[in-house]
Amino acid sequence: MRLGHFDLNLFVTLDALLDTRSVSRAGERLHIGASATSSALARLREHFGDELLVQVGRRMELTPLAQNLREPVRDLLLRSQATLAAKADFDATREQRRFVFNASDYATTVLLTPLAQRLETEAPGISMDVVSLGDSNLQRLERGEVDFALYPERNASDQHPMQQLMSESYTCVVWTGHRLPAQGLSFEHYMASRHVAAQFGDQRVATFESWFLSTHGVAREVVVTASTFNSLPPLVVGTQRIATMHTRLARMYARILPIRLLPPPFEIPPLHLVMQWNRHNTQDAAHAWLRQQLIAVAQDAA
């Protein structure tokens, strides 16, 4: 498709080049050869009168113009995708579409699992792709790489719509053979114990540890870390360790593991879990329908 003398398909290539800063990686993303990508880059350079990508040492860097083009080009593509997804009539039973969810394993277990069960009968043509939370959640949302992001409200972007899903409390989980003092789980016993904790992202950030240190001025002795919340209950079984985790998830494991659930010996602010989506998808009928399904699932889990 052309607009005047400009081939609009070049915007797709330009977006990939601006994001990857590499001719070969952009070609791989678009499933075209490096020669075709190089040819497209040459045409883009001619149109804009700018190199766009320049060699700096062993890396390719964006020119100032290319930096300024990143956001409007991505915005144009997202608007175009949203326009193409628009339909006069929407029928969930006949819809054939894939949606990408960015969520922790906690949100996947508590919300996305029952959502998948609901879709099996109400919208069998809709498929789900769940990707783990990491270090670039907001960038993924901004670039339209995910349809839904489920995370704590404190992590949400103010540039995109947001919907509150649920509030969650925290529970201490111990093995049934854990030697508790007669008065129960005190703060002193909690601090004297060893702990298991979840850490996420490439930087292995333990957000609870950061909060605990800033609140209490002391650090817990964490001896086992895992990259999923679902790993925590099994890791306390047969030990004197303590896991501090989401109450709903802990209750699920209490049905199948020899563990006890105890109230924390200190106050922990509740987790407010929200759903976010890119602002360009707000009017998408299928997207709106799926948002309502997720809200309904969250209400059932409340």
Automatic annotation (TrEMBL):
Gene3D superfamilies: Periplasmic binding protein-like II, Winged helix-like DNA-binding domain superfamily/Winged helix DNA-binding domain. The keyword Zinc does not apply. It comes from the Bacteria. Residues 6-63 form the HTH lysR-type domain. It comes from Sphaerotilus hippei. Pfam families: HTH_1 (PF00126), LysR_substrate (PF03466). PANTHER family: HTH-TYPE TRANSCRIPTIONAL REGULATOR LEUO, HTH-TYPE TRANSCRIPTIONAL REGULATOR LEUO-RELATED. Belongs to the LysR transcriptional regulatory family. This is LysR family transcriptional regulator. Keywords: DNA-binding, Transcription, Transcription regulation. GO terms for molecular function: DNA binding; DNA-binding transcription factor activity. SUPFAM superfamilies: Periplasmic binding protein-like II (SSF53850), Winged helix' DNA-binding domain (SSF46785).
